[in-house]
Amino acid sequence: MKRLILAMSCVALLGGCTLFHHEKIVEQPAPVKVQEPRLVDADGVPIERVPFRAGISSVTVENMAKQHGCTGGQGAGLMTEQGPVEVYRMLCDNGKVFRARCELRQCKAM
Known about the structure:
Elements: H1 2-20, H2 58-67, E1 77-78, E2 85-91, E3 97-103, E4 106-109
């Protein structure tokens, strides 16, 4: 009889201890993909957004833009691949865009 009580108490203790060690499974919601609204031109063709990249002649183009009354923004960003001929673009505070073409670091406004 004592063995039966001892066996039942051991089972109850072991069973009770395992109840506290279970990990709770919490389902996390699936990540929501936020899509940027796509800009389109007058013909409905999507407008590609180019990330800002500084180039070798960025400072030169920024100084040229300042002489033409264009200030602000992130500065002059490289629009083409680096190489002997590069095209830069700078967004002005007044909403205009200043562009320059640099060939072997000799820049001219476009």
